[in-house]
Amino acid sequence: MNSDPRDYWEGADRFLDLYPLDGEGDKLSLVKALLERFTHLPYENLSKIIKLHRAGPEIRPPLEVVEDHQAWGLGGTCFSLTFLLQTILSRWGIPSYPVMADMSWGKDTHTCLVAKIDRRRYLLDPSYLLHLPLELAPDREQMVDVGFSSMGLRFDPGSGYYNLFTYNQGETKWRYRFRDLPIHLDDFLRRWRSSFSWKGMKGICLTHLTSEGLYYLHNDFIRRTNRQGRRNYKLKGEHRVVEEVFGIKGEILEEAREILRRGQSIVQTGPG
Question: How many helices (H) and strands (E) would you count in the chain?
């Protein structure tokens, strides 16, 4: 796989066939509508665990991501979702570039996209349930309501970083930070491949936003977060829950669990 999104427009076209847009209105409205379509794709590492087991640290190109979504209800992790989004934007002639972000557990452990729309730059992050653009505005914090909470993007002139926060029931949480510096696409692919050995591959992780709130699943633990607060569950009837809440077919969950049980994923120590 190479690093030019223009070589993967077939995947962009397949996504737009599956979730059509009328193509009318200004570019920002079009991007907002596109991000709303991305709510159908869950964040999940099942596909990555299975891919690693079957083929090694091989990247899923956009067409494969969309086909896996159609067949199994899968989505992807931050790299695959970000690259799919960038591919669609390149199909439309909207400039964008990936950036790397630091999270609480390590440097350069997340990726998202910056798009240039009508002479302004916007953070787009389909894997972090940020389904609205957030303008990069150094002089003021930008806020959006994402359903289960509010998100704010704030610039720190001392460090040169933009910081993403969530706000819910009076609680503020720092989520990640990034500099508005494009990462070269070849380096993006290198980091994508290295992410197959991150510690996040040692367990199962799913997130999805529904009308009832944000659902987060980690191994046999599930949490629902909404404006009323958080509720934690011990996972029971997991196939039904994964299919109903995340839209992913249960046999995919079981295949990933079996791979992890048998220790057949190639896992090394590293950030994740």
Answer: 8, 13
**Cα–chain center distance at 200:** 14
Set out the domains of the chain in order of their start, with CATH numbers. 5-261 (3.30.2140.20)
Distance CA 86, CA 38 (A): 12
- List per-residue pLDDT tens for the chain, 272 residues long: 777 899 999 999 999 999 999 766 799 999 999 999 999 999 999 999 999 999 999 999 999 999 999 999 999 999 999 999 999 999 999 999 999 999 998 999 999 999 999 999 999 999 998 889 999 999 999 999 888 789 999 999 999 999 999 998 788 999 999 999 999 989 999 999 999 999 889 999 999 988 888 899 998 889 998 888 888 888 776 678 789 889 999 999 999 999 999 985 443 322 22
DSSP class of 203: S
- Selection from 272, 264, 269 nearest residue 53 by Cα: 264
Phi, psi of 156 (to 5 degrees): -110, 105
Is the CA virtual torsion 107, 109, 2, 95 positive or negative? negative
Q: Which helix (H) or strand (E) holds 254?
A: helix 250-261
How would you class 203 by CB atoms within 10 Å of its CB: exposed for 0-12, middle for 13-18, buried for 19 or more?
middle
pTM (two decimals): 0.93
Pairing of strands 229-234, 221-226: antiparallel
d(CA 70, CA 182): 31
Tell me the C-alpha distance between 82 and 98, whole Å. Answer: 7
Using alpha carbons only, what angle is made at residue 232 by residues 229 and 234, rounded to the nearest 5 degrees? 165
